[in-house]
Amino acid sequence: MINNQNFISLKQVSINNGFWSYYIKLIKDVMIPYQWEALNDRVPDAEPSHVIKNFKIAAGEIQGEFAGMVFQDSDLYKWLEAVSYSLIAYPDAELEKTADEVIELIAKVQQSDGYLNTYFTIKEPDKKWTNLRDCHELYCAGHLIEAAVAYYEATGKKKLLDVACRFADHIDSVFGSEPHKKKGYPGHEEIELALIKLYRLTKEEKYLNLSKYFIDERGKRPLYFEIEAKERGNTNFFDLWNKLGPKYFQVHLPVREQTTAEGHAVRAVYLYSGMADVALETGDKSLVNACKRLWDNLTKKRMYVTGSIGSMSIGESLTFDYDLPNDTNYSETCASVGLVFFAHRMLQIDPDRQYSDVMERALYNTVISGMSLDGKKFFYVNPLEVWPEACEKNKVKSHVKYTRQPWFGCACCPPNIARLLTSLGKYIYFKKDKEVFVHLYVDSELKEEISENQVSIRQSTQYPWDERIDIEVDCEKETEFTLSLRIPGWCKEAKIKVNNEEIDLNSVTVKGYTKINRIWKHDKVEVYFSMPVMRIKANPNVREDEGKVAIQRGPIVYCLEEIDNGKNLNNIVLPTDSKFEIKTDKDLNNVCVIETVAFREKYENWNDELYKSDVKVSYEKTRIRFVPYFVWANRIPGEMEVWVREK
Length: 647
What we know:
There is one protein chain. The protein folds into three domains: 6-427, Glycosyltransferase (Alpha/alpha barrel), CATH 1.50.10.10; 433-529, Immunoglobulin-like (Sandwich); 533-646, no CATH class. It is 38% helix and 20% strand. The protein is built from 21 helices and 20 strands. Strands 1, 3, 4, 5, 6, 7, 8, 9, 10 and 11 form a ten-stranded mixed sheet that branches. Strand 6 and strand 7 form a beta hairpin. The relative contact order is 0.09. Residues 1-5 have low confidence and may be disordered.
C-alpha cells in the first residue's frame, strides 16, 4: 500500500510570481466569476448552460424541464473543484459563501437512497442505471466526489463530502461482483479516479475496491454494454456504439490486455489515470505494465507536438499510429488535461523524465491554448493549422474554430482548465521517502517535513522564457535528503551548481533526474538549461509533416499567424540556415516571440489556370515571426500553422 505522506498537499505549495502566477490569478479574478455567470446563464451571446436552473428544478425550487447535455451536472462540480483549490491560495469569504449556497442546493437534490443526478431526477426517474454506456451517471458522480474531496481539504467543511459519501455508498450498493449487483462500469471513465481520492481521504476500503472493480470488469465478455442495451430494447441515447464500436469505450479488451490507445481520447486517459491510481494503491504490476504499454503507444505514436491527443472529430477519438493531421484534428482541451493527469500518476509509480516531459509539453501548449489571455473565451478543439474560410465552408472542418468561443453547450473544457491550473501546485513537486522531486520549474515554494524537520524549497525563475532557475533550500535543522531535479528532454546543455560548486550530471542523473544527496541546511542551487531555438521534425510515418519543421524553444512550441506574416502561410519556406532572433512582445503578455528571415514562394505565370505544367517559381525573402502556440487567436482572426515547410 502507498504511504500517503508521499503526496504533496496544495496547502504546502505556494506559486509566487512568474509565468504560472498570471494564470492562477486570472482564474481567480476572471474565470471563476465568469464561469459562475455562465452556469447561471448570464453571459450575453453565449450558449446557455442551464446547470443552476436544472439543480433548482430538481430541488423543487422552480418549475421547468431539464435542459442541456445529459452530463451537464459535471460543469458545476468542476467549477466547485476549481473554487476549492483557489480558496487555498486566495481565501475569499464571498466566494466561499457562494460555494456553500451551491452545496446546499446540491444536497437538496440528493434522494433518500443517496442517488444524485438532475437529468434522471427531472426527466427519466424510472431509467436510472439503465444506460451506463451513454448517460454519464457515473461520470457525473465522479466529478461530484472530486469536488467534495477538494472542498473538504480547502475548508474543512463536510456538507458536500457527506453528500458524496452517501452517493458513493449508493453506487457501491448497486455495482460489484456480488450476485445481486449490476456488473456494469462507466461509459465515460472518471469515477475510478474520484473513488481513489475518496479512499485516500476517508480510508474506507470499499471505495478502493469499487474503483478496482470498475477497472477489472471493463472489457470482460459478455460485454455489459451489450447486455444492458438488450434489456432496454437496444435504444441509444447517442449513436456512438453503432458508429465506432467497443474500442470507442475502451471495452474491446480487458484493460490489462490493451496495448494501443483507442477511442474517445478523454475517456482513454481518464481510464489510464484510474488504472495507475489503483496500481499505485495495490501494487498490481500487471496494471503498471499495461499503463506503460498504453503510455508508450499514446505518446510515441499518437500525440501531437503540442501535447494534444485525439486526431479524429468523429467521436473526439484516437485513430491509428502516426495519423496526425493538422487541419482537421480535434485535440480536445480536456484530452490534454487528462494526459497531464495520466503523466502525473505515472510519475508517482516511476519517477521518469518521459512522464514529466509530456506533462510539461501539454501544460505549456494545448492546456493553456484552451483559453484566451483574458480568461473569457475558450477553445474546445486545438488544431495545428487553420484556414478560416475552410473552417466556415468545408463541413469536414466545421468543428475547427479560428476564434475562441465565450461558452459551449457542452462546456467540459473551461472548468477542466480551471480545476487543473488552480491545483498546479500538486504537480510541481513529489516526495518519496527522503527524496524530493522537482518535476516542473515554477516560481514557487514547497514546505515539507523530512525526518521530522521542516524544510523549505523555493524556486525563483522566469522559466519558460529564461534559462535559469535559482533554488534555495532552508532547513530548521541539518537534514539529509535527496533533491532530484528534472533535466528536460529537450535540453542538450544543462548545468547545476550547489553553493557555486558544479555537479557532475553524468554521475548522478537517473531517468532524467539529477539526484543531489547531501546534508542540507541553508543552501543555494543554480540550475541552467540552454534554450536555443530548435527545429523539430516528425517521424517520417507522419505523412502530413514530411518536409516540414516545427519551431520550439524550451517547452514552448511556436506557430505562424496571418496577422504577423500575411496570407497563404503555406507558401512560406524556412531555410535550413536561418538565424533566429528572440524578442519580448509586451502586447502578448510579455511572451518571447521568434523572428527570422525566410522565403515566400512566388508563381510568376499562373494566371487563371487551375493546373499548369510550365510553372515558374521564384523565392522572395521575407521576415517572419513565430509566436507561442498557446497565444494564437488572441488578436485579429486569421490563418495559423505550426508545421512549416523547410528548404
